[in-house]
Amino acid sequence: MTDFAIIGFGSRGTLFAGYIKENANMRLTAVVDVCEEQLVLAQKEYGVSADRCYRDYRDFYRAGKIADAVIVASQDADHYAHTIPALEAGYDVLLEKPVANRLEDCIGIRDKANALHRKVMVCHVLRYSHFYDFVKKIIDGGEIGRVININQTENVGYWHYAHSFIRGAWRNSDTSSPMILAKCCHDLDIITYLIGSDCESISSFGNLTYFKEENAPNGSAAYCFKCPLKDKCVFNCLKIYNDRNWMVLGSRSQLSADCMEELEEKLKDENNPFSRCVFRCDNNVVDHQEVEMLYKNGATAHLTMTPFSEECTRTLNVHGTAGEIEGDMEKKMISVTVFGKGRREIDLAKLGLDFHCHGGGDKKLLNDFAEYISGKENIRALTTIDKSIESHLMCFAAEKSRLANGKPFEVLRGEKI
Length: 417
Hints:
globular; alpha/beta; six-stranded parallel sheet; nine-stranded mixed sheet; Rossmann fold; Dihydrodipicolinate Reductase, domain 2
């Protein structure tokens, strides 16, 4: 039996709590969250005792070691403060990405874990997704030869971007993380994993171009419920949360409601950040970004991050010396072309796999972490802190390049940092 404590009981924390609840070999023993209603949820839905629900993470750590591992699923800026005491208290940690929102804090967590011989895995769940697992096996099997170039597009989706990166918690890099770190450390990690080499240098372009007040439609209002154009606007919060109401589940009191009527009332409150016009928010993260990467083995890669898409998906092109791979994660489709031998399609949807949450990656990651900390041998442990820190070094270098108008920068490691 593996006992877990969760710090941060929002959408990610409750997702992992659900997986723990359905696994007979796991148990949720403690929850930490600043929001009282989330602690009530932990008690009612997940069986956590009231005396093991904490508003303050320091009270949790003062209780002694009451679990085998801690899942840190709090906001980016809190990861360092929540993780270091866990390591010092003897906990192994499953840490949500990004590791932290400052480079020195990322390095600090890695170094502390290694010094104390604690096991830390980062939630770079794409490595565990069925889609990328299949792609990796094709590459490692040698069917397309040596990988020379990878192009990946992170289609954030206009509605997801509006929710999380204009109105939501990741809208402002001053209080959260730059977009490349918050959303795309996943992507730089998976590209590096597929190429199988360290990144040598990186450059990036991008900015906040569209979602600012100068682009607000004539006659629009500061709040959706007051706007005469709301019926025609795809960013109308009343429409987004009606059509995509799954997002309500992880957004605390500002959006949680028992019915649409109650939700609509909440979205008529000017103090609710989710009721604001997308062109009149305090967002400063980019709304599009390009990243160019050169790897030590000579391979190159390109990432596009864009919210200007209908679907929230990742598309991938891998070019090898003997063939190529194309894929769409959301469509669960992979095509493999071997030069001179034709093309074959792999429809993952027909394989009877569980694609819930990041293409099935979240559950597989949690299960692997539980086996990893149990001491079992031959565990994949694909996202240990030492592996996952690489993409963070790349993200900080990419952001430095973006702010320098695309100037290439070396990805620094060790004493060079």
